[in-house]
Amino acid sequence: MSNPNRRRSANYIYYFVMVAIFGVGIWLILATGSKLNSPQNTLNPSGQAAAAPSTQTQMSRFFRLEDRTPLSILLLQIIVIIVVAKLFAAIFRRIGQPPVMGEMVAGISLGPSVLGLLAPAISSFLFPGTSFGTLGLLSQIGVVLFMFIVGMEVDLEHLREKASSAIMVSHASIIVPFLLGAALSLTLFPALATPNSAFTPFALFMGIAMSITAFPVLARIIRDRQLTQSPLATTALACAAVDDVSAWCILAIVIAIAKSTGLVGALVTIGLTAVFILVMLLLVKPQLDGLISNRIADARYSRRLLASALAFALASAWVTETIGIHALFGGFLAGLVMPSDRKIQTFFEEKIEVFSSIFLLPLFFVFTGLRTKITLLNDWWSWVVCIAIIIVAIAGKLGGSMLMARWTRMSWRDSFGIGVLMNTRGLMELVALNIGYDLGILSDRIFAMMVIMALTTTFMTAPLLSLVGIGKEKGKRGKG
Asked: What is the DSSP letter of 378?
């Protein structure tokens, strides 16, 4: 019997001999072929021998925008965005802020306000103007899927139980800042509106932008601070859910008015939107409850359900985009009519939310950051206006919510907590602002001011809750 070790050694020798023969053979072939002249490329058009491209020329081709393919640009952008977004998210998590705040700041840092100012050559190399279209479309798909998850987290049954107090507080948190924002637009419109913008859509959009609450980040802050089972958290979640539904319905009306050419066009769009909402709630939702609930437990249907849910969310988004409002509203409505079973929600969150929040949402933050030009606020008047917008937003949202909560016989401490939580804007505000920017309602300067307002009101939530001793942070991850 042969020795196994000797056989193994012989195999290694044969392998290395084979690799050596391959290497020598390839070298001989390439060395011999390099001396041959191509009959087609011996001379260049001038009649002189063509020189082989130098290493410097090859490197310069890599750094020249015109020599890069759209796919290579997009892949490099995605790599940079994901790495920088997660780095900022980790930093903000350590300082007790929702990680989404870090991703929002990362987006602005990669835009013209920071990277474009400090290293314009790198900024133009990473984010050339010709790449904005592809980046914007990918980011919109990510936000549609995110809004689908947000809609699923709205518990309609819970809203019915808390309807009386939740509706009063949430609608006060919409009406007061909406009124203040519309009034502020009387001053802002002459100086900060786009040249072709009309006052009505500008005022309505300023009002709704002041009124939005970020339901997802609010829910995550409540969970992080161990407040889930408290009466304060129950009321806050109900108020935020009602706020979300109401604000997006109002936003749909504002978009319809802004995109229509007249009153008749606006009424048609609003009417079609109302019909679509009723069809989804009264006809589609009961069918989905039975269809999905009966199949979610069977592993054979898991991939089919996931594909069907994605198609359903995108189809709903397509309908609302076609009607004349925004695709994001369709994604939100698709999530809203999904079954409220927690097992079903967890299934889709694990499959959809992880991908959209890690891969697609950071693209949206950076796309927003590329539009945010804080350098346009280059005089004292601009910063005074920006501070005034922040003050009005806080006074309307926090103040309106707090006073109405107190009116419903909550303690001053809990009323303040409700106001602070409802003042959280986060990602939802950025979504609305981008809609206004795309419609040509918001100019570059007012867009930058409103982004700063969204960051400020979200950043202040955790410190204010700690100030009055509401909840205990656990340092978990957040989104919003």
From this structure: -
